[in-house]
Design a protein that fits this description.
alpha+beta, Immunoglobulin-like, four-stranded antiparallel beta sheet, 14% helix, flat
């Protein structure tokens, strides 16, 4: 058997090219497009959340000395918000209650969200929970977390074994 007999040829006796990689690439692109179209129908536009879902927007900034978490909590008071720290996890949770005296109102559009929310952030190890401070002013919660001191490097002398 010669080497030429192993090379696939077409009807016009030219060497056939395998189209499998292009066919699979095209199939993969089509599947990706279908999934993208499907998920776009169910996901909110960038920067918007589904109606009825209460998730506060947050900013986390860091300096050499502290981590600052700022969360937007419009309409909430101190009694509606809890900030807890356990096992290096900072938890911000609360509840926004709906107004009760709306018996005579008919809604045509309802976009305001009510309900409870929960946000958790992992803190660096070594943070002192007693040094964390939180304040709420004009619907903005500000949590300040002092960063732990950097670990001290201690050189260990290596001795020969006896």
């Amino acid at each position: 058997m010669s080497l030429k007999s192993l090379i696939p040829v077409g009807r016009d006796r030219t060497v056939m090219r395998r189209e499998f990689p292009d066919m699979f690439t095209s199939l993969q692109r089509e599947i990706d497009r279908l999934f993208d179209e499907f998920t776009m129908r169910w996901s909110p536009p960038a920067g918007r959340r589904p109606l009825g879902e209460l998730v506060p927007s947050m900013d986390v900034t860091e300096t050499d000395k502290e981590i600052e978490i700022t969360a937007e909590l419009p309409g909430l008071e101190e009694k509606d918000v809890q900030v807890n720290v356990a096992d290096n996890v900072l938890v911000i949770k609360g509840e926004k209650k709906a107004e009760k005296d709306e018996k005579d109102k008919e809604y045509r559009l309802f976009e305001r969200s009510y309900g409870s929310f929960y946000r958790a952030l992992e803190l660096p190890s070594g943070v002192d929970p007693n040094a964390i401070k939180a304040s709420l002013s004009n619907g903005v919660l500000k949590v300040t977390v002092p960063k732990p001191a950097p670990a001290q490097v201690k050189k260990v002398e290596v001795k020969t074994a006896a």
